[in-house]
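just leaving the lab so this will be short. what follows is a protein written twice so to speak, once as letters and once as structure tokens for the fold. can you read through it and tell me how you think this chain folds. anything you notice is useful, everything is just below:
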Amino acid sequence: MQIFCIFETEKQSLFSVKYKNSEFDAWDEIFEKWTDVEYLEEYFESYSDTLKSGFWKDISVEDAVLKTLRDAQLLEKAILTCANDNDLLKKFFKPLTDSEIQKDNLLKTKAYGIVTKWLRIYAVKLTDETYVVSGGAIKLFGKMQEQKETEFELKKLIMLKDFLIANHVFDKENLSE
């Protein structure tokens, strides 16, 4: 596992994990998928029954693809804009669960899509100003364990947190070392 910088300013930093045998780091992989029309069509087709459920208000596969393409652009731009705003990043990432709020360090977090709310970026919070992205997914179900893609992302998030603990990385300075 390697960690790459997405952006770093005096006040805040966003990093991303590159897993062994992965072509891209997690950040690039997320947006590569979320801007690939063919991938999105196949993905939403496999969950077409879920999209037709009342929760999603009977959205078509085509509309889901278009909304995701637009939302991916907005989400990436919004987070990268955080590099110029010294306190916006911590407002973007929220605790993964209510029980995470109680933990002091290495908090598991998520960032939501702007439009659809089904886009999720997962990261470990080192400090209010420093986050490490572990991955992301299109979350169509209530619990991460109810969908194979989000369950996998949860495992990656836990794996990243364990890696950071094992390597005594608790802030940006430790990460740089």
Q: What stands out?
A: The chain has one domain: 2-176. The radius of gyration is 16 Å.
